Amino acid sequence: MIRVGIADDYPVVLRGIEAILATCPDLVLAFSAESITQLMSCLERDPVDVLLCDYAFDDDPQADGLDLLKRLRRQHPAMKVIFLSAHAQPQIISSALELGAAGFIGKNRSDFVNLPQAVCSVHHGHVYLPQSLSSALLGSLFNVNARQTGLAQLSERELVVARMICQGMSISAIAERLNRSPKTISNQKVAAMKKLGVSNDVELSRIFQNLGH
What we know:
The longest helix is centred in the middle third of the chain and has 23 residues, at 131-153. The protein has 11 helices and 5 strands, in the order βαβαβαβαβααααααα. With 213 residues, it is α/β, with parallel strands linked by helices. It has helices at residues 11-21, 36-45, 65-75, 90-98, 109-112, 115-123, 131-153, 156-166, 171-178, 182-196, 201-210; strands at 2-7, 27-33, 50-54, 80-85, 103-106. Strands 2-1-3-4-5 form a 5-stranded parallel beta sheet, sandwiched between helices.
């Protein structure tokens, strides 16, 4: 038997999940919590194997999301956490998985139908993502990898110029600093942007920021 806890600040969501879990004889519902305070109290007296937890609690004074995940992982390291979210962005999913979340599920009927499968999957050591979220995450990772590949294609001079552009320096200032002509600097900037698939300085800066450069 797998002991399951639920935490969400919308009672209708809790009731819906309770009804779905009740159809699976291998799952035992230990508690349903409507706030982070209630959740932590329930876990203290009634630990579970898997927690289905809302990613964002509206108007809750305690930290939710990734901060809550860190707290849960620290206090209950053996417990598997599956986040629930109506608006899960690929960056959020990726960060949560890196911090130890066992899965992420959208708040829609098609994903909720597979909740028993998700609980059993993470209980056996797997990471669970429904098709809709896994496709979005893979698409995001593909874009990042593509840009990393593009970054590797930059020449040393193009990379230096691109970094200085991202630091807010003008073409003329870079030319003076590197002792090159403004035309040469401009050409190297254009070449770098073309290889990275961006069309303006804002997009260029965002790539360098996302890739930690």
